[in-house]
Amino acid sequence: MSTVYDVTTFSGSVSPHTDIGRVINEIIADIKAQQTTQVTRPGAVIYIPPGHYDLQTRVIIDISYVQIKGSGHGFQSLAIRDESSTSGWIDTLPGGSHIQMKNTDGTSVAFLVQRAGSPTTVGRINSVEFRDFIIDGVSASKRRHRRRDPHRRRTPSFYGHSGRDRVAGNDTSDRTVEARPPSYAGR
Prior knowledge:
The protein is 13% helix and 21% strand. The chain contains 3 helices and 11 strands; from the N terminus they run βαββββαββαββββ. Strand 10 (167-169) and strand 11 form a beta hairpin.
């Protein structure tokens, strides 16, 4: 049983270049189908080779020990290329694994790390890692809650290039992490 999945060679229902979110969800379903007991749950690596991928479907990660790994980011954002004169450049789309946020499923969330139920009954999600790729069209911050809980650990906000909307993670029991596209209508 392999624990390394390549989004370009996995036999998904669509091309990863068309909707990488759907392909990653199908890979996660395959991981859950293959790893059904405590001793067969080592997790997996989902590899995103260099290239451009559109994300139209929210990715739901509800398993532990998953690494979604690309091959570097190339640009910090395609906005650098799209908003600059490229006439003197040698490369306009240099290497890297690039995901363009296009959510058409109505959720406006790229990645959601969450398991339904209380951690005392369904367990916590541990060790989910995103590395070496870029998601264009999102920024990051901590999701705020109305009621202040003095026992909840607080983390600082992190903002991406747009500083709008958010990728959010809260430290409550549901371990939610969301990536949202920017809203250019203002704050």
